[in-house]
Amino acid sequence: MKVMLVNGSSHLHGTTMTALEEMIKVFHSEEVETEVVQLGGKPIADCLQCNVCQKTGKCVIKDDGVNEFVEKAKTADGFVFATPVYFAHPSGRIYDFLDRVFYSAGGYDAFKFKPGAAVAVAKRGGTTAALDGINKYFGIAQMPVAGSTYWNMVHGLYGEEASQDEEGMQTMRNLARNMIWMMRCFKLGRESGILYPETETDACTNFIKRSDTLR
Q: Rounded to an integer, what distance in angstroms lies between the CA atom of residue 174 and that of residue 171?
């Protein structure tokens, strides 16, 4: 099994990565493969709403890792999207990244029925609002949301402070264990012949009557 983790911070080894590293320890102890995608400080373009991806299956912007991530996501079994908290919301870079990743993925096939976990790291407040923002991607893509023994958050201004948040680190370890359990259950279900639920896609409403299903 494989989990892909996205670090939405500009700091490669800051508080957000400290939280992810605590999860990675658990994944590796249970022989779950991991891959970390570091968004870092490089520019990430916002979605242009050009809809080229709906025809080609790929984002028209090709130089910031979005298309590569979607391709790898097809073979992943679970996802963790982690962000620092800026003004009580996720980082702009992870929002831009996820907007384009999910929209260009073509019907969310790379993500649906795979566990997703949002992680927020902050000095003090704004974590629940940031988690809510990321969880919305899971909700629209038919992804089971992984939770823990507290909301998926860690506190600290610097990396070494995050590691001192004992309950936050505990929450990360339990979150990883819960994801492993979910992924194993889904794998056993598939092997036992339990099919994924049928998905209806005919209706598409935007409060104006349409003759097509464009979103």
A: 5
